[in-house]
Amino acid sequence: MKRAMGALALGVMLALTFLSGALAGSFDADDSVLRLVNKEHKIAAKYQPDLVKPNVPTNRKDQAEYVYMRPVAAQALENLFAAAKEQGYTLLAVSGYRSYQTQKANYDRKVKKSGARQTTVAPPGASEHQLGLAMDLVCDSYRYLNTKPLMETKEFQWLYENCYKYGFAVRYQPGWIKITGFSTEAWHFRYLGVAHASALTWLNVPYETYVEKAQLLPEYVIQRGNAYLLYGLINNALNGDGAVFQEMRDLPAASTEEMKRNIQSMTARFLPEGVTLEMALYNKVP
Ligand SMILES: [Zn+2]
Fold this sequence. Notes:
By secondary structure, the protein is of the alpha+beta class. It has a domain at 25-195: Muramoyl-pentapeptide Carboxypeptidase, domain 2. The chain is built from 13 helices and 4 strands. It has a 4-stranded antiparallel sheet. Residues 129, 134, 136, 185, 188 line the site of zinc ion (ZN).
């Protein structure tokens, strides 16, 4: 019996790996801030976002040419750097947007050196960097892309506790390789907006696991849901009985008014102590 259960769990785990199959709406469109990208969900080779250069310090001068992002993410990155600075921490940008062709060149080089089974450099189309929504960061006290020493810096300890407030999530964490397909990368931050980055960070799961449930929600909840609502619903789906999650899916939402009401009434159920409905609706996260 025990072995059968183990085999079943393994089967479920394998089935969930990379979240194979078609994705819904916001998680599938290349120009969506929520686009899920991995080895199973690649971006079109021709996709190129609008880009700007965020006004932030880089590790080396020559890297300034490689830190472009989509405007919404660039603005959020500037806010994140400014907040870090206020605490006395200097963050440094290393690598932002990468085209399909650049990623292909990086990948080919890596495979030539380390073989096809390497899990550090993404194949072309499978890198979040092509979205213009990811940035690799280091900091003043440690300037290399090495997970352990980076995570020990005070800058990164602050980053890990605060980046979601600015819309960023840590995408590749220890123990997640079976689901994400990539080794741990302490330096890789993905912009998702405050609501989803917060919910994802509080749940402490890979984005693949999050999207598997989130994509079942109505599109208006995904677009307009706040951090508390998204966290509450997806937590209920992943760790609870799924009843509230199902209730949200079943609520009639024929008009904008109805959608607004649904979001308010459901959010009210998930308010942590000290957070008012108004704070929640404006994504004022602690
Ligand atoms: Zn990266």
